[in-house]
Fold these 2 entries.
Entry 1:
Amino acid sequence: MLQRREFLRLGVSGLSLPSLFRLRNAVANEGSEPKERTALIVVFLHGGASHLETWDPKPFAPSEYRGPFQTIQTRTPGLDFCELLPRQAAISDKFTILRSMTHTGFCHGIGQQQMLTGHEVRQFTPRSQYPEILTITNHLRRDTKRELPNYVGVPPIPYLGAAYLGPSCEAFAVYGDPNSPTFKVPGITLADAAQGERMRGRIGLRQQFDRLQRNLDQTGNMQAMDEFEQSALTMLTSPHAKNAFDLSLEDPAIRDRYGRNVWGQQCLLARRLVESGVDLVTTTLAGPTCGRVLSWDDHAVNHHVFDAMKSRAPFFDQAVATLIEDLYERGLDRRVMVVVTGEFGRTPKISYAPDGATGVTQPGRDHWPAANSMMFAGGGIPVGQLIGATDPRGEQVIERRTSVHDLLATMYRHLGIQPRGISINDFSGRPIPLLNEGTPVPELISG
């Protein structure tokens, strides 16, 4: 028998699924629907990956900057990577690297919030006071008749949120290790068909009572409730929803190719979701694979930065390279854009401090929003490019400086949204523009 608490726990942030759909519809604003149902995957390196140990190495910098790793050539002329990323280097003709992202957010939360909301956030709050691009797109593309959620976080990016759009626009959150044989996404399916029939019966009985109140309802909420409950039931009883999240249906060879580890299977699940019709997916690469502090936050007190990078890089390299190859092989490379980034880079000058656990002095790199490297793939963009440059030490952007507004304008363009023409009311009723500055990066405009 389906318990009431089992139904209630299916929602986001304590909301039942009917409430989720109802609240999404309650935020009424103008939007623009893309001509083609495009999708976006954000692979997020929570904590901020070092640009010098990934896509912007500095082999000729002084020793106190360059680190111990060598550089390797990619398939793109003039583009070298750190030697820790050979698989990505081998397919650089399938993506473009931007080395010139910069903003002013010095802590993790502010960095994430500036990058993905486009607002000059200065004070950290655990949940952003502004909605980020994925929740906004989820709101603008609201569709209560879909079998799958529009936005899934595998898992969500930590310090973001829907703010005044309400929790209904936030990601359907997926936690846990997709590589585990016991991995299961709660809230996608009912245990059996009989549960679905009982739920339909209960909804029907409630609707009979609701009819007594319809003449008193001036807002249409009672009629809307029927629609939202039906949407929730559709998702819960849909084989399509169940199958989209079921990695056991994948060819074992494909699972091996991504890597039988948490990051590899997260990226595989992201591909599986967009292929099934999910519009927006984030996959946050963090947790034990990163090291003791569970992120890419490689201060000397947290990690030996170079040991940590060497340990985690193979999983990152394999998962991202395979995701990009797989999208191309399945013909998804125009419809789906992939953005790979953290909230900022790391200090080019190496710092030293005692390890927080052992007391042994070791090297680290600290927060550095003045220069960050990002990867873009898919979305029909021109690939095999290098955009922008930093100085010989990796400290400052010296070519093609790119702002968070340019980044968001680029992603909005792929999603078919014209942000300059759209405002959404905040809690006080004040209209807040989606974006009031910035232009799409020309080199990242699809042909």
Entry 2:
Amino acid sequence: MSSVPPTASDQATAEPRNALDRFFEITRRGSSVGAEIRGGVVTFVTMAYIVILNPIILSSSKDIAGTQLGFVQLSAVTGFTAAVMTILFGLIARLPFAFAAGLGINAFLAFSVVGEVTWAEAMGLVVINGLIIVLLSATGLRRMIFEAVPMQLKLAITVGIGLFIAFIGLVNAGFVTSTKSDSPPVGLGIGGSVATAPTLVFVITLLLTAILVGLRIKGGILIGLVSGTVIAVIVEAIWHLGPKVDGDKVHPGGWGLTVPTLPKNLVAVPDLSLIGHVDLFGAFGRIGAVSALMLVFTLVFTNFFDAMGTMTGLSKEAGLADDKGEFPRLRSALIVEGVGAVAGGLTSGSSNTVFIESGAGIGEGARTGLANIVTGLLFLLAMFFTPLVSIVPTEVAAAALVIVGALMMSQIRHIDLTDFTALFPVFVTVTIMPLTYSIANGIGAGFISWVLVRAFSGRIREISPLLLIVTAGFVIYFARGPIEALLH
């Protein structure tokens, strides 16, 4: 549940109770150990699907050499890297932002990059991307870009991410589906109705959680997730719905990624053999420097602005951002986020970044890095208890995402929408994110529209020169296909 953040005066006068409290600033941020633990658990539960979804995406494509990564190995390194980076971020940045393999980048690698290079070479590009981001963060350039973004756009990013994760939840639950046609592109459920048991379980979980959060019951989101999972297990035990996709067969009434059944074996030894399978510069020799650099450019822009947008939104929701939208240990946070990309490449699990699902834990009360320690430890356990983690169906986890999306939407009240030169870029940012399924796309469209509308309204002097440079970069980012074709 979203709690009221402490005021600046409360934070300044709060006395830490012990060394743990002093290190993580638990009392100072108006939190408690119990709230941090609950928040960490909720964040893990809403993110646990990544140890299954990331392997599904990455193992679905063969590289140019015909190599296909193993599902079991990918699941192990996904959990391992998420655990290490989440704990590292919690200890250094001391913020409740959990890490895992970024969904945009892993899909880009699987469906675009490995059509030209090997998996090892693709992961080498991911490492280079991470090193560039670390360099930008360490030199302070990344923070300068962060500070150059107008507050209205930072707030718009928060609201856009709220709509984005709510949309992800609705899609994962089968509540919103593709119509496979141009008009309209999406629809409600199957044939315009909520016709499947898994989607009905989502609706029940969503309403139950909304009531609990509305009643300000501590642990409301966690109680909703547990209750929804119990209902799902009972439904599966009675009707044996099975998975939605089983090999080549599709069962529209089945469960999404995971079937909520009690596993026969609770423990599985993780296979971390993919760690270190990286060819740092092989792609440059295989496809040429220009093509390799364009791939790196795309990775950097996606990684850079997805993470910046996510951290902006999460810090605002947690009440940790100041009037400029900046939050504690910003530089450390930006550096560690870049390290996540390096770590993901080195383990072959794809670039790791801040996850928007961390908002679920923040909604449960998490305000410090202690929640990250809890989430990270659970990811470590998940490596050994993958069958147990798979009990929670995506339809149940989706309900928490919709709730958090609603909570993040509340930030729109801080945006002055009376000035159309601000309203339009805010509108573009908020709508493009969910509609294109990309935080980076929303940020880029918002930046470009902000600069153009303000410049041609005679207010170009209000625009930071650095924002102009970044906007030019986004123009290249959006036009990278034609540009790459011209360079060949």
